[in-house]
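Recap from last week: sequence in, structure out.
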Amino acid sequence: MRRAVLFLALCVLGAPTLAAQGTEERPVTEALGRARSLEDSVLAAQVLLTGIDGKGVLGPGMAALLGEVPAGGVLLFRYNLSVRREEVAPFLAQVRAAALFRGGEDLPPLIAVDHEGGLVHRLGEGLTRLPPPLSYWERLRDGGDREAILRDLEESAFRSGGELRELGITVNLAPVAETLSPENRDFLGSRSYGPDPAFVEDAASAFIRGMGRAGVVCVVKHFPGSSGDPHRQAVSLAGDRAALNSLVRPLAALLRSAPLVMVSHVRVPAWDAGQSASLSPAVMGRWLRGELGFDGAVLADDFSMAGSSERDNGRAAVAALNAGADWIMCWPSNLAATRRAILAALASGALPRERLVEAAARIIAVKLRLRNEAPGGVP
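Predicted structure tokens:
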């Protein structure tokens, strides 16, 4: 029990008022107890993050699917949110109600979106479009005051986070905490906070603080880095382990307080010659959790990407969970099949129940924080 509690101890919101409570064991212990008490069918659903059909109104087919498979989280895209601002909150209330399960009425799904700024903006009209992350480094490069730039970044994230939370969005799949380099420039471009690792670390921290003050959980991404676009092709990171630790400096600094991190499909031969990072016990276990000390929840990137070494979502989910991931992305078309694959692995012993409990508890711990703690001064 103590080991699992420590694993979960940093699975909290990023706001200063909440982070100070990150070492309290009551919510973490409660999350473990809640996870252990769940029926296997619900337990297997809590480790899933699914996209949904519909915008403005949740259709009966999608509502029925969420009722059957009460996913731990729902990920929204532009097509879900291309409606008037006043339509979003009622729509998301329908989503939360559809995914409730018996005994988990206080554990609705986490509602997530990619809201990095610049090109990555999923929201409709009337909502803040954050500046491109690279623009903050460009201001610094052009002689701007570093502290003033970081304060502006944090306040912009706070105001935007307040809008997200008001709509019912509680998780932001941002920031990108990768240093811009010749290898990843074509893929990341303006999504990075620039080529200076120290500024990337400070800027990403400011973004997380701002969102956290508004009551929005951030997902730091992409661990361990990028060398190309994994949506299109298999990519890998060269270098020995010492070089890789230098590469992940901004990410490593954030891992001490980040509640969630997204692990990508990049290959890392220095750690695992065969599997992509999202399926590798060496990358997620020995490196991310062991050497770098990350204790939060691990979200595996979308396995439908060309860069994944396993494209079947059910098999990938089981392998990723066994390797150390806690949250698995799905699409509506494979949500039920992915849950069935997890249950089959559970029944056969291919996936230990305690590993599934540990993964689900990390997601439930975030839900409990959102339930128990009010945002810190939402505008």
